[in-house]
Specification:
It contains 12 helices and no strands. By secondary structure, the protein is mainly α.
Amino acid sequence: MDTGNVLDLSDSDFERFFESYDIDIHCARYQINGPSNAKKMHTFWDLEPDELVARVLSDLLDFLEVLYFPAGEGRDLSALRICRAISARLLKVSFEEGSQIAEFSSIEEIELPDVQELPGDSAVTRIIQDRLEEARTCQSAGADLAVIFLCGSVLEAVLLGAAQENPETFNRSTCSPKKTGGKVKDFRDWSLSQLIDVAFDIGLLKPDSRRFSHALRDFRNYIHPEQQLREDFKPDAYTSEGCFQALKTALADLSNAR
């Protein structure tokens, strides 16, 4: 939705789609954050109950899958997995309930790249391997919040390793964070958000990886209990699996596995 559109839907198609839910998507209620269809969609997500949002999202995903992935193949299948998981979580159903949700679990899982192919010091690489294995153990045990934190820490460690291996390239990026006076900050003072944006700017991350990585970063920030309490966030298996998929997509980019 970066262009302000939702898929390839025209304004009239977008309107007709929402009419099936007795919703006037072009009314003032949904334009409080802006008039583009993407802004209206974001506002719809914010204002409406989870069940309605999930049904709309599921139908849009069906449309996207038929339009763009008729053979079940495509470069954004990991995005489709994450969105199906979100829809299922909002509906409070398992993947097995309903043919649409079952479709999600049938997509082939992305494999983790060889950690030896990732940038970074070899000693740190061993720790990364341990954390990935621990994340899988936590996922099997239902410790979903721990999975999110571990995935976020691995992403940050690998991006930091990439920066340390390519200091000139990272420092030359127009996105690199600067101190007062214009000098680039030391890499260890960069935030995860800044590491993601610079890695994308210099071509290490693809556009989808950048979006997924920022989503993982947002979930990782629930390490602060106050934020989790404020947003009433309750992680589950769908959340942890989506974060794992986001991490694997980024690591595939950083190891040149894509």
